[in-house]
Every structure is written in structure tokens, then in C-alpha cells.
Design goal:
Blueprint lengths: L15 H13 L11 H15 L8 H20 L2 E7 L6 H4 L7 E6 L1 H11 L7 E6 L5 H9 L6 E6 L8 H13 L3 E9 L1 H17 L20 E8 H7 L7 H8 L4 H8 L2 E8 L1
Parallel strand pairs: 1-2, 1-4, 2-3, 4-5
Antiparallel strand pairs: 5-7, 6-7
Helix pairs in contact: 1-2, 1-3, 3-9, 6-7
Length: about 290
């Protein structure tokens, strides 16, 4: 394996799915796991292991993505059991295995969209497994406006549709994110949009730790709107729920050492500063405006 200062095992943004799958495998193998993903290590493969070994503090910084997964699990299950969501569209689904591992209603229609090679790899790895709900996979380049619009225009929901963009937006430009927001709003089947969203502070932190390695791997971090969820308001979406990754990491006991001490210290800061810190990184549920 080459020196991470000169090379990276990541060669395309889709490789980051292997990286995150390895984190899910690490969590699943704990005796007190927040979730169980029995497919994660298989899907991550050797490349997933290599990426985590190569990235600076690759294992140390697993906790935010593990927390993100657990919180999104909770919000997805709430949406399908309490908000009449009967169709889920996972954009840039990567190697997510929720249609196999979550207790979803059998009648739920779950659609995964990602690059064709990612879809082909996933089908090869999970072809013998049976999902718990109706599952459809579509190979599409979501950065291509024509392909994206054609795909999204065909999605239908009897009651309400939920879109998931987990680990996607941070790699896109603001212009592409805005276009996706408009495209989603144009289809009235979509009532909810679940995403992870970081602020400028997070972008600076990530740039110091993983920025160079990911940029060399053609997967630079880009999107962290200064206005937070307000970015989506002109495109027809408003914030319904915000879960701070920091707060959730303490609730779920998956944070850094001395996290509760720093939480107490943080209470001494002005309210505006506390809210800024809280908004550094979070899981957000948007609803149609």
C-alpha cells in the first residue's frame, strides 16, 4: 500500500461506499451494536479494509458515520410506520443494505439508484439474499441532469415518498444540489427528504484529516452551505427535524473520549455559539414546503 501522502486507494467517489460499509461492519461486530448489518463486511471487501487503513485516523473517526447510520435507521422506520411513507428512493445508495436488515413493511417499495457498476457489484454480492420489502435497483448517473430527471419522473407513491441522500451531497457542487432539490420537488410523490448535512466548520475539519486523500481519489468534499437547511427553502423544502451528530453520539454512547465533559463545558458558551456547534454536522429530515 502506498504512502497516503502520495496515493489513495480511493479512485472514484463510488469507492467511498466500501469505506462506509466497513464502518457498518465494525459496529455490527460489537456485542453492544447499535445495528446489525450482516452483509457489510462482504460488501466492503478488501478495498474497504484498505481504505480505512490508508486514511489518517481511519478507525478513530468511524463514530460519526456509525451514528449517522443508526439515526437514519430510526427516522426511516418512523417514516414508514407513522408518516404513511410507502415508497423510498435511495439516491446514491452505495452498499446500503437496509431493505435486507431493517424490519420494513413487506408492501413498501424501495428503489435504489447508483452508478451502473455499483448496482452490478451489489447484485452480484447480494443476489442470493432476499429483501424484506419490494426492492428495485436502477443504474443511473445522478450528476447527469437528463438521466436524473428521467429516473425521478417515473417514481410513484400512493401516499408519500421518502428520498434518502446519505453521504451524497457533500461530494456535489451547490449547483447540482440545487438542481436535485428542484427535481425532487417537481415530483409530488416526494413528501420527505432525509439527508446528512454539514456546515463550514465540518468541511474545514474534514479537509484537515481526509481532504487531501479524497481529493487525490477524485472524491473531494464540496457542499456545506453557510445557510444550513435554509439552502433548500427556495427549492420548496423546509426543515422538519434536525438531529445533531454530536448530541446523538452522546445519546447513543458512540462519541469521543470525554464527550460528556465537553458537552458540559459547551453549555457555558452563548446560545448562538452552541447552536452553531450543534449544526456542525447533522441528520436532517426535510418536508415539502
Amino acid at each position: 500500500m502506498g504512502d497516503v501522502t502520495t496515493s489513495s486507494p480511493i479512485s472514484h467517489v463510488s469507492d467511498t461506499a466500501r469505506w462506509v460499509a466497513l464502518y457498518r461492519a465494525m459496529e455490527s461486530e460489537r456485542p453492544d451494536a447499535l445495528f446489525r448489518d450482516p452483509y457489510a463486511r462482504r460488501l466492503a471487501g478488501e478495498l474497504g479494509e484498505e481504505i480505512v487503513r490508508a486514511l489518517p485516523n481511519g478507525r478513530t473517526w468511524a463514530w460519526p458515520m456509525i451514528v449517522r447510520t443508526a439515526v437514519m435507521d430510526e427516522l426511516i422506520l418512523h417514516a414508514v410506520t407513522h408518516d404513511e411513507v410507502d415508497a423510498v428512493v435511495n439516491l446514491a445508495a452505495g452498499l446500503d443494505a437496509r431493505p435486507y436488515r431493517l424490519p420494513l413493511p413487506p408492501a413498501l417499495h424501495w428503489i435504489e439508484a447508483d452508478f451502473p457498476d455499483v448496482i452490478a457489484y451489489k447484485e452480484a454480492q447480494l443476489g442470493s439474499e432476499r429483501p424484506v420489502c419490494a426492492l428495485e435497483r436502477v443504474g443511473v448517473d445522478l450528476s447527469d441532469a437528463a438521466q436524473r430527471c428521467a429516473f425521478l419522473s417515473n417514481v410513484r407513491a400512493r401516499h408519500a415518498g421518502l428520498v434518502i441522500t446519505e453521504g451524497l451531497l457533500i461530494y456535489l457542487t451547490a449547483e447540482i444540489v440545487a438542481a436535485i432539490a428542484d427535481d425532487l420537488h417537481a415530483n409530488r410523490a416526494f413528501h420527505y427528504w432525509l439527508m446528512d448535512l454539514g456546515g463550514r466548520r465540518l468541511l474545514k475539519m474534514l479537509a484537515r484529516t481526509w481532504g487531501n486523500a479524497l481529493a487525490r481519489g477524485n472524491a473531494p468534499f464540496r457542499f456545506a452551505p453557510a445557510e444550513g437547511t435554509g439552502f433548500f427553502a427556495p427549492h420548496g423544502w423546509r426543515e422538519a427535524e434536525y438531529r445533531s451528530i454530536w448530541d446523538e453520539s452522546i445519546r447513543l454512547d458512540r462519541s469521543v473520549r470525554f464527550a460528556r465533559f465537553w458537552q458540559l463545558v459547551g453549555r457555558l458558551a452563548p446560545r448562538a455559539k452552541r447552536e452553531e456547534w450543534r449544526r456542525t454536522s447533522g441528520v436532517v429530515l426535510l418536508e415539502r414546503g
